[in-house]
Amino acid sequence: MFGSEEEIWEFITWSFESLQEGKWPSKDWKGVLYDSSSEEGMKAGTELADGKAFYIWFVKGDLDWLVKGLWLRHYNADELCDFCPATIQAPDPGMKAMNFARGSQWKSRLRTPREWRNSARVLHFLFVKFEYLSIWNVECDDLHIKYQGVWPLVLGSILYVIVYQLLDRSPVENMNWLCAQIIDEYHSCKVKVQLHKVELSSFTDPRAPGADFPCLKGRAAEIKHITLPIRNIWKGLRTTGCVFKDGIDACLESMCEMQEITDATYRDVFLDVHEAAKYRRAVATFLENYSDLAVLADAQRTMDPRHPFLFNTIPKMHWMWHGGYKCQYIHPTRSSCCVDEDYMDFVREIVSHSVSGTPSHNVPGRFIEKVSWSMYFKNKFQV
Ligand SMILES: [Zn+2]
């Protein structure tokens, strides 16, 4: 039924099973007993790693992979969530997936591992083979959800409010002023990863501003590191009278708090109980306030269609809530699928140095070898 995908997972889970036992296997991945005189046969049953064993703690991937590779619910579907029974179109407001108000019912109806197994339409090989695994072991990809999903929408709308609604000169003049402020903040906050050119077209279409939801363009690391400068600039603006003031205040503070916590503990595997509670609270506060901003902007537009589209909401926000809720089980940064987009350049570079003089079927092995050495040196010398 599943063809080669099933075979790949048979091989992977066979490997995981041996690691779990902590012993070299006596059978190959097809279940065939090794000849006792073979190299594998002689190692069979002996310790793999000085008596140590390995268990899967979490499974991570971006939302696309979780759907296509792990057969979880589609993040764009009405019933989008495996963690809870919330849906996009739920008739009961308390069960709406994008309702982040404090008392929303779905927040107190998270599925236990057993409930999740019973509710899953199909279970992936991994969950069939290892019964101790469940949706609670699946991690939302923090980098894609926050810095390539939610943050660009929040910051894009905030820039729009500053340039088109708060400052009193022309949008171009306002943008030039704002750009200079951002550069100043980069210097005073000692930000190394900078979004070099922020202009109107970086977050809206200057020919029809507000005709679509603003979204700040940039690489994940650039988006992440512009948050603090924008927060500082926002705090210095005269925002009295701005209907979005309280919501933006709360969102920017929560975003900076999340970043502060993860940056300060970047190399840790887990957040301590105190930090985890703060992080979870910051995520919930952010989402609660952001959805209020979205409702407010929507109400404005309903009253008068000349109002701009602001504060778009996307299903990634629902995932973000669950990621925040689960943060005590693994550091949020560990769930990122890669450090940043530079990783792809890094992969290309290593591959280009692995192909020369190497038979094509050996290139993957050569690549892994070089990556292992680079990680070894990186960890050893902290570069
Ligand atoms: Zn959910």
Can you put this structure into words, describing what you see?
The longest helix has 31 residues, at 273-303. The chain folds into four domains: 5-43, no CATH class; 63-119, no CATH class; 142-335, no CATH class; 341-381, no CATH class. The chain has 13 helices and two strands. It is mainly alpha-helical and 383 residues long. A two-stranded parallel ribbon has the order 1-2. The two termini are 46 Å apart. Helix 6 (142-166) runs parallel beside helix 8 (220-236). The chain is globular, with a radius of gyration of 24 Å. The protein has helices at 4-21, 39-43, 63-68, 113-119, 125-129, 142-166, 171-188, 220-236, 245-264, 273-303, 316-325, 342-352, 363-381, and strands spanning 59-61, 138-140. It binds zinc ion (ZN). Zinc ion (ZN) is lined by residues 81, 83-84, 86, 318, 322.
How many structural domains are formed by the residues?
A: 4
Compute the average pLDDT. 92
Major β-sheet profile: 2 strands, parallel
- Judged by helices, strands and strand pairing, the structural class is mainly alpha
Q: What is the alpha-carbon Rg in Å?
A: 24 Å
Helical proportion, percent range:
40-55%
Per DSSP, the total helix count is 13
Count of extended strands: 2
Span of the ends, CA to CA: 46 Å
Bound small-molecule species:
zinc ion
Residue stretches low in confidence (pLDDT < 50, at least 5 long) are: none
- Which shape, going by the Cα principal axes? globular
Q: Name the beta content range.
A: under 5%
Provide a compact summary of the structure.
Helices cover 50% and strands 2% of the residues.
